[in-house]
Amino acid sequence: MTRDQTAGKSAIPHGVRMLGVEDVRQANELKLLHIIRDRQPISRVDLVKATGLRAGTVSVIVNRLLRASIVHEGESARSSGGRPATYLQINAEKAHAVGISIGVHQTVYGISDFNGRILNQRTVRTESDAGRFLNDLSGDITQMVASHRRKRVAAVGVSVPGLVDRAAGSLVRSPNLGWRDVPIASVLEAKLGLPVQVENDANAAALSELWYGPMEVWSAHCLLFVLIVQGIGTGLILNGEVYVGSRIGMGGFGHIPLDPNGPPCSCGSIGCWEALASDEATLARFANSNGSVRPASLDHLIDLAEAGDARARDELITSATFSGRAIKGLSHGLAPDIVVIGGQITRAWSIVEPVLLNELQGEYLLPGTSRPQLRPASVYNPAFFGAFPVALRSVLPRTRRVSSLL
Ligand SMILES: [Zn+2]
Predict the structure, then answer these.
(1) Residue 279: φ, ψ to 5°
(2) Using one digit for the tens of pLDDT, what is the confidence trace for 183-198?
(3) Which residues surround ligand 1, an ion (CB under 5 A)?
């Protein structure tokens, strides 16, 4: 049976889906895991306080996580009342995961434990021939896994720019990579012998904010994640769950047209947000407008700006202006509580933040209610960090027994 035939009824959850009862259940489980990881060792009483969930719900989820050995009861101590309290901790060795972030120029891969701590990391050049590249990459990863306690690696998560068919684990189309119909999961599963989940890079980046970010992410009704890399992608977290819409989900806010006289975009249109404010757009503008040598990456351009190059600084400001306009437009429609920006541009936060805030000000239908908080991502490479929760979610236990409590 092929992967496609089994996709619809697979026991393995395929990353993120539309919100439903099952999602609320898993969101609660992830929220609980996040708090345990963040505050461990933590008592059940404190866990109930921190989650805001009912004690019965917390108890059911904790017992399930204990049975699955994802959480264990750690040290016990005698509280002031004299009754011994047990403390919960994540079993970091429950499962290790391989995370792979395929970028237009570079691909980063590594291994993390169940705490999300990255134990090993490597960067290679992304090749244009997808088949050959994935073959070489799987050879490198096999070596890394073999030299790193192979038996504990349980799953692989891949983040990739473009439209992803989650059920099939394939990349349908990526204009920036120049890839089309690449069965990433099938190829890697055959080579690595591990289950592989594939997710769009902006959705993976949004997931990294749930996994590595502050607790406020869990209380936000709507969080808009803007991933600025070689292209621009967006991820939405609604009530603690990454929302993707249909099987081949969204991610297309980067192609909102902003300037009918702007540069051509990889999607075939003109003047998209991505064509005006992505790393590629910023670097191309810097090189074209002055006949300058094109820096190798946005990091290099930021180095120039920080060293006093006014033109480099101007291009960062121009891109931030376009991004601010696009985010303001989206804020009118989505009313996010929080907007998180991810990508190398966050290294220039002192330059871009005032520009973004300035663009986000101005007219709102309901001033004070529509304007979101704005902050940089919690991790420097969110598309890479997000590949680990994409993988580790498939290790979480699935049961319907808690439905009556939620
Ligand atoms: Zn476009």
Answers:
(1) -55, -45
(2) 999 999 999 999 999 9
(3) 255, 265, 267, 269, 272
